Amino acid sequence: MLCAQGLTFRYGRTPVVVDLSFSLAAGEVLGVVGPNGAGKSTLIRLLTRILSPDAGMVMVAGRELGSLSRLELARIAAVVPQAAELPDGFTALELVAMGRTPHLGWLSQPSRRDEAITEEALRRTDTWRFRHRLAATLSGGERQRVVLARALAQEPKLLLLDEPTNHLDLSYQAELVALIRREAANGLAALVVLHDLNLAIRACDRLLVLNQGRLVAEGPPAEVVTSALLRQVYGAAAEVLHPPGLGPVVVPKL
Amino acid sequence: MLSDPAALTTAAAPRRLPLGLPLLGLAILLAVIGLAASIGAVPISLREVVGGVWRGLTGELSGPLDTIIWQMRLPRVLLAALVGGSLALAGVAYQGLFRNPLADPYLLGVASGAGFGASLVLAFSATVPLLAQLGVPLVAFICALAAALLVTVLARQGGGLPLVALILAGVVVGSILTAATSLTMLAAREQAAGVLAWLLGSFAFAGWAKLASALPFVLVAAVVIWLSHRALNLLALGEEQAAQLGLPVEAFKLLLIGAATLATAAAVSVSGVIGFVGLMVPHAVRLWVGADHYRLIPLACLAGAVFMVLADLLARTVIAPSELPVGVITALVGGPFFLAVLRRSSLHRREG
Fold it and tell me: What is the mean pLDDT of chain B?
């Protein structure tokens, strides 16, 4: 579904993403972790063509990223941005319906099918019951789910999420992860940038660990997350525990 | 991903234009137009107004009342409606583009460009025959478009058109042109009063010719802007999210700036600079019907027309037989409104 080769991006002369190669298959949840400034958000902006790479190539659904128009890309890939802005005067329903835009002609109105897909996206994210509320009145968790619903309404094959659990309390975090896993089980490919290592370990099939724009480790969470790696990447002393019945658990040493 | 769309019978029905509101707006506009046409130095009954309009349409004007209605009142009232509607239209587009409820149609130096053009004609038409031939509306229109074009070119960076750069360039170009206007007024002192009157905005010299000269531009702009309702909705999310939802952002920015500037320039060229309407009306209508541009654009347009007809009615009746410039009326209403909005949004930010 997604395959990057030698992806490189410099901001001025500062390298932000360096020679990054990875792939993501349909049905898979790929986590991207790493310290602040590792290039995680830049990676998402490169994958959505907000930024253009200085070198390297990205294939999306069998086509070269640069050869896709914005519209074609939006039919394949949906983004849940970090701290997405939701303008006040729109209802949740109107905002989610915007996810249908890439599938509409510029002059055509949403069809019953578009409306049904919008409804489905609202229901799956449990936002249907407040669909008529204005964005200004929604809580942080509700807003985040509306943004996710809009992304689902795009009917993407690839979902890119940038810190989707930021500012969410524990129950919403679990809910969101469960939702992403459900969509992946239906064949969606998901790339999730996560700050919280413990959440990433549980949410993802595979992890990419970035440090200063470079890929330093890749693989299933249980293999990748070791105290040696944590010391190398985060420069922090942390212990990785393996309680029975759970994956690895990262505990900072105080 | 969706198993069977047809199975979902309780469709979300997100956006149909509820026909009730636009029809109500249209009815109010017609009523206000009829009212405004009947009030004046010579009071005319509504019945006479309707009759006069009918006889005008069929080309069988009879009597002085018909002439007053058809040659003086109706073109003036319709021109006020057209200018009000097109300023509100441009306001919706600019506020959507700049994601700022305080953006107004004159933001990009359009008003100062038009003002400069008008002052040139008024001051130098005696010495430069070409200016007299072109006339105030056309020169004002050309200068307004030139100013907006200059602002757009100055603000261009790389392949993009950053909105902050647009606003800054607009302020700079606007200031320079305002200074140039003052200079022409000094150079031709005896014409200064005429220039000033024009700058304050008025429908006192309305006629069918002015109406006909502005209408095509406003219509084109209105069609372009209304067809871009979905793009305006996406732009409300910010440029990055709009792009990620498939919008060719830069192309739509140029298209919308062009259309809104056209509507503004057309309005200014026939009526002078009438402030606050394009700022106030879209904002008020948005509070009322929500931010979805599919509804907002036609309703703001109607509301702008109604507001301007009423403002002009006030302008020519409060100190009759003299007239106030209509721009004074809209500023007196709009100024406090502007401050209220500013206060509200700054309070909002502090809470948020």
Answer: 86
Residue B329 lies in a domain: yes
* ipTM for the whole complex: 0.89
For residue B350, is pLDDT > 70?
no
Give the DSSP H or E segment for A152.
Answer: helix A140-153
Domain of residue B163 covers 75-342
Q: Which residues pair with A80 in a beta bridge?
A: A161
Residue B246 at interface with chain A, using a CB cutoff of 8 Å: yes
Whole-structure pTM value: 0.87
User: Which residues of chain A lie closer than 8 angstroms to B1, CB-CB?
Assistant: 117, 120, 152, 155, 186, 188
Highest average pLDDT, of A138-142, B53-57, B223-227, comes from: B223-227
| CA distance linking residue A106 with residue B231, whole number of Å | 9
Angle subtended by helix axes B163-187 and B129-155, to nearest 10: 150
Residue B2 included in any domain = no
> How many pairs of residues across A and B have Cβ atoms under 8 Å apart?
115
On the question of pLDDT at B349 being above 80, the answer is: no
Residue A108 contacts B where some CB pair is shorter than 8 Å? no
Q: Quick check: is B46 in a domain?
A: no
Task: Note the pLDDT tens digit of each residue in A158-217.
Answer: 999 999 887 778 888 888 899 999 999 999 999 999 988 899 998 999 999 999 889 999
Report long-range pairs for B341-344 (Cβ below 8 Å, ≥24 apart).
B341/B101, B341/B102, B341/B283, B342/B102
HSE, side-chain direction, 13 A CA sphere, residue A135: 23
B200 within some domain: yes
Q: Is A134 in Cβ contact with B290 (below 8 Å)?
A: yes
Which A positions 30-89 lie with beta carbon below 8 A of chain B? 45, 48-50, 69-75, 78-79, 81, 84-89
The CATH code of the domain that includes B218 is: 1.10.3470.10
Check the CA dihedral A161-A166-A167-A173 and report its sign. positive
Question: Which pLDDT score, from 0 to 100, does residue B347 have?
Answer: 56
How close B52 comes to chain A (CA, Å)?
40
Across residues B248-258, what is the average pLDDT? Answer: 91
How much is the average pLDDT of A63-90? 90
How much is the pLDDT for B17? 55
Q: How far is CA B110 from CA A91, B115, B175, B258, in A?
A: 34, 8, 11, 11
Please judge whether B246 and A112 are an interchain contact, meaning their C-beta atoms are less than 8 angstroms apart.
no
Question: What is the spatial distance between Cα B309 and Cα B37, in angstroms, rounded to a whole number?
Answer: 10
| Beta-bridge partners for A79 | A160
Question: What's the CA gap between A248 and A224, in Å, rounded?
Answer: 10
Domain boundaries, chain A: 2-252
CB pair distance less than 8 Å for B12 and A90? no
In this predicted model, which residue has the larger pLDDT, B86 or A241?
Answer: B86
Q: What total of structural domains would you count in chain B?
A: 1
Question: A155 pLDDT exceeds 90?
Answer: yes
Assess if CATH 3.40.50.1240 describes domain A2-252. no
What pLDDT is stored for residue B1 in this prediction?
A: 42
Compute the distance between CA of residue A119 and CA of residue A35 in angstroms, rounded to an integer: 37
